[in-house]
Design goal:
Largest sheet: 7 strands, antiparallel
Order of helices and strands: HHEEEHEEEEHHH
Strand order of the largest sheet: 1-2-3-7-6-5-4
Strand content: 15-25%
Distance between the termini: 127 Å
Number of helices: 6
Length: about 290
């Protein structure tokens, strides 16, 4: 039989061992946590810190690059008032005092006006003229780009569309000077049931606004076909006047429709991609096919 003294000694030894285990475990926990903490601090203070700094720098750069320059022009003129009375009398003499304004949900970004003229010469036939001016303004947008760049893209598309009209014959294109930052005139013949029409389309961009002027004429009921060169000159003159009206509406002066400094820089960057040259090449090719 185990003596009481021996039993007490054995119990004391067991308690001592148990206490030692508890102390060892308790001491091990902070060391583990400390090791984990050091590992984490090492990452954030060394490589992690650099990563965070790089990430912050990248975010700042992205934020800076996401900022676009505000569009130069903030409004459009009243579309039916972009041409003078004298110009309207020359292009559409029988149109009357006012044109027909197109509907627009936002007149600060989009507008149009059209005039039609029929000079009836009785048994000799009649002379028909139709004129339309469309204005489209682009705002700068972080996701889409700067207003003048967006306007340039639309301008190029308008020129291409004018060159590709179904049924058009003898298509010719030429650059137009003095009509904003870039401008192209497209002309062609179009046969309709009413008669042979001479179509003139002038597309011009000034800053972030695109002006598209369509002008056509025809001799109906046996009257003579109008001279295409005369129509072209009249259309280009009217387009320059419309561009000047856009500039004037934005405090840029009315008579001078030359490009501004910022616009000149933008136009220079795009000189190699200007649709005027490609328009001429495309038109020449179309004329050969016709």
């Amino acid at each position: 039989m185990e003596r009481p003294a021996q039993r007490d000694q054995r119990q004391r030894d067991q308690r001592a061992k148990l206490l030692h285990r508890v102390l060892v475990c308790a001491a091990a926990v902070p060391v583990t946590l400390l090791a984990a903490g050091c590992s984490s601090d090492s990452g954030s203070g060394d490589g992690g810190g650099k990563d965070s700094a790089a990430s912050a720098s990248a975010s700042a750069s992205a934020s800076a690059s996401a900022t676009v320059q505000a569009a130069a022009y903030r409004q459009l003129p009243q579309p039916c008032a972009v041409l003078s009375k004298k110009t309207l009398e020359d292009l559409v003499p029988e149109a009357g005092k006012s044109g027909k304004e197109g509907t627009s949900q936002d007149t600060s970004t989009r507008g149009s006006c059209s005039w039609s003229s029929l000079d009836n010469n009785g048994v000799k036939g009649s002379q028909f003229r139709w004129l339309n001016v469309s204005l489209l303004r682009f705002e700068s947008d972080v996701t889409r780009g700067e207003g003048d760049e967006l306007a340039h893209e639309y301008y190029a598309k308008q020129v291409q569309d004018a060159q590709a009209v179904e049924g058009a014959k003898n298509v010719k294109s030429e650059p137009v000077t003095g009509a904003g930052d870039e401008a192209t005139a497209v002309r062609y013949d179009l046969k309709k049931k009413e008669g042979a029409f001479k179509q003139q389309t002038v597309v011009a961009r000034v800053e972030n606004v695109v002006v598209t002027l369509d002008y056509n004429g025809a001799g109906l009921a046996g009257d003579k076909t109008p001279d295409a060169d005369d129509l072209a000159k009249a259309a280009q003159k009217a387009a320059k006047e419309a561009v000047a009206a856009v500039s004037a509406a934005n405090g840029d002066g009315g008579a001078d429709s030359a490009p501004s400094g910022s616009a000149s820089a933008s136009a220079s960057k795009r000189a190699s991609a200007s649709p005027s040259k490609s328009a001429s090449a495309s038109a020449s090719e179309s004329a050969k096919k016709s």
